[in-house]
User: Fold these one by one.
Assistant:
Number 1:
Amino acid sequence: MEERPENPDMHVYARYTQETRLRAEEVIGKMMGGHALLYSSGLSAAASALDFYMPSTIAIRRGYFGVHEVIRKYCAGRNVSIIDLDDEYPVTQGAPAGNNLDFRHGTTLVWVESPLNPTGEARNIQHYAERAHAAKGYIVVDATLAPPPLQDPFRHGVDMIMHSGTKYFGGHSDLLMGILALQRYDQFKHLWEERSVNGRVPGNFETYLLLRSLRTMPLRVLRQSDTAAKLVKFLYSLTETQQPDSNVPAQIAHGRVVKQVWHSSLQPRATLEEEVEDTVKENHDFDPSSQITHGGSPTFGMLISNENYAKYLPHYLSYFIPATSLGGVESLIEQRVIASPGMDPRILRISVGLEDVEDLKVDIIAAMTRLVNEHS
Ligand SMILES: *Cc1c(COP(=O)(O)O)cnc(C)c1O
C-alpha cells in the first residue's frame, strides 16, 4: 500500500498531523470535491499557494487587498511580473501544466478572485482557466465569497481553490482559518510536506470550532444566499431607474440614497459606471448563473449617493452590525474604505446573516428614512 504520511496510524506531532485537523480536512475535501489542507488563515493559505507554484508572472486584477500584500511579500527579492487578468499570458518556462512537481521560477499563475470582494460580482472562471492552461500556466481561484454549495470552480477547470475559512466555513465570526484544495493527490502531498515544514497549520481548538461549523454550513450558506438575493432585489428597486414597492417612502427611492447595487444576480450589468474602480471590469456579457448557483454570494456591495450617507448608514441600522469581515450568522455592514484603503468612500459592503429578510428590509427602510431626514 502507498504510504500516506498525512494520514498515519499514530499522530506524533501536530505540525505534521493532528486528529481533529485530519477529520476536518476529510469533510472539507468531500464538500469541495478534492483534497483539502487547512492553514492558520486565508492569507497564510494564499502565501502557501504562491510558494507552491513559484510564479514568475502573476495575472491578477483587484480583489481582497490582503492578497496583494502577500503577493508583494512574495515578490520581494525575486524578479516577478504582475500583469492584468486580461493581458497576454507569457508561456510558462519550466514545468508545463500537467507536469509533475517540477515547479521552478518561471510559471505563469493566474489568480482569480470570484465572486469579487466587495461587490459580490462573479467572474468567468472557465474563461480564465482556459487562458491559463493555454499558456501552460496554473489558475488559483479565491472562492471565499461563494463557498460550497454555491460554486464549484473545479468543474470549470481550476487547479487550486483557496478560501478564507474565517468567513463562511467558520460562519460564527469566532475563528481564523485558511483552506487550499486540489484535485491532484501528488500536488496535495507536496503541499502537505511544505506545510509540515513551514508550520502554517491552524490551532487545534480553532479546528475543533471549524468542525462544529461544518455541520450547519450548507443550511447557513443556502439561507444566507437566498436572503441576499432578496435584499439585492429590494435595494436595486431603490435605484434611480426603478420603481419600489408601495411601502417604501419616496424620499429614499429613485436613487436618492442607493445609486448602484452590485451582485452576481444583477449580471450581466446594464450600466457600466466605469468611474467606480472596484467592480468586475471583464466579460461584461458573462451570465454567472452557469457557474454560481442558488442566490449567489451572500456578500454584496452598493454605491451610496454621497459619502456622508455612506458614513452614517451603518450606524443607523439595528440588525446589521457596523463591522468588517463577512460570512457570519449576524448581518454586517461596512463602509469599505475603512478596512480597504483607497476605495471609493461611497461603497458599502453587506454580509447577510441568518435574520429574517423582512426584518432586514424594515430595518433598512427605517435607517434610510432617518438618514435622509437628518442629513439633507
Ligand atoms: C478575508 C479574505 C481573505 C483573507 O483571509 P483571512 O482568513 O482573513 O486571512 C482573502 N480573500 C478574501 C476574498 C477574503 O474575503
Number 2:
Amino acid sequence: MSLYDELELPRVINACATVTFLGGSRMPPEVLAAMHDAAQNFVNIPELQRKLGEKIAAMTHNEAAYIATGAAAGIVLAIAACMTHDNPTARAMLPQTDGLRNEVLLFKSHNIGYAFAVRQTGAKMVLLGDGEQVTAAELEGAINDKTAAFIWFQGTFCGRGDLPLPEVIEICQARGVPVLIDAAAQLPPVENFWNFTQLGATAAIFSGGKDLRGPQASGLVVGKRWLIEAIRPLGNPNAGIGRPMKVGKEEMAGLYAAVKRYLALDHAARRERDERAVADWCAAFNQLPGVSAQRSFPNEAGQPLPRCEVIIGAGARLSHDGTLLALRAGTPSIETGGAVGRTSFHLNPMTLSDEECKIVEERIVTLLA
Ligand SMILES: *Cc1c(COP(=O)(O)O)cnc(C)c1O
C-alpha cells in the first residue's frame, strides 16, 4: 500500500503539465538510484556542489553551474550574488540592502508571481514598460549606479512589444549590468541549457523538478564563473540568505543524474510520442456530439510540445465545467490544464504514460458519448 493510499489521497492523473501543485514530475529510475546512492554516506557538501557544478557546466557548455533547491531558490541566490559579489559584509546584511547596488530591472509583463524571489533578497524591483511594450530608451534610462541586475522571465506572458532579449543583453552588457534569465520551464528544448548563456546572459536558471524530472526540490543555475562563485558563500552550509533553501546531497545527485539523462534523451522520439497522443485524443474527441478537439502548439510554457485543446459546445452531453468536475471527481482523478468558467480546456501528454493517455481518452469518451 502506498503512502497516498494510506492517507486516502486520491491518485491523480496529471494531464495538466509539470505543475508544482500536482507534484511537478516523476523521477526516472536513474534519478532515484542516484539519490538513493547519495543518501547512504556522508560527503563534504561544498566539495560535492563544486564537483557536480564543474561536470554540469562542462556538459551544458557553460563556465560554471550551481545546484539549488528550485528555480525560485536559484533566482534568490543569483540576485543576492549580483548585489553582494565577493563582499562578505554585504552578504551578512541581506535582506537589508541600504548602500548596496540593490535595483533589479525587469519588464512589467514579466512581473509574474515568481518575481517574489527577487524581492525576497531585499532588492528593489524596477518595472519597465506598460506590460505590452518596452523600448531600448526606457531600458537605457533605467540603468544607474544602483542597478544590480536585469532579470528576464521567459514564458508566454512576455509582452508583444517588449524589447527582444538579444537587445536587452547588448544594452546591459555595454553598461556592465548582469542579465539573469528565469528559464524555469524552458526545457525542452534541451539546447536552452546553453542558448541563453551563449546569447550573452550572465546566467540561466532552470527548475530541476519540471521536464528535467530531477528531484522536485532542485534547480540549476548555469552561467558565468564569477556569479556562481558569488553564490557559493550565500548557500548552505553557510548561514545566510540561501540557508533556508538548503540543498541536500540527494538533490544534488538526483539533479546531476537528471541532467545527464536529459542530454542523452531522444527528444525527437519523445516529441513524436506526444504528437501521437494528441492526434489520438483529437480523433477520439471529434467523434463526440458537441465536442471539438484540436492540436495546440506550443504549450502553456512556450515549450515546443503539443497539447490537445478540447472545446465543449452547446450540443455536448456535459457542460465544460461539468466535464472538468467529473474528471476531477473520478477514480483516478484527472487534472487537466483547464479551469471552471472557461470555454475550453487543454490536455497535456508531457507528464503522462501511454497507459494514462488512454485512461484520459476513455474517461472523456465515456462522459461525453
Ligand atoms: C516553475 C517556475 C518557477 C519556479 O520553479 P521551481 O523550480 O518550482 O522553484 C519560476 N519561474 C517560472 C517561469 C516557472 O515556470
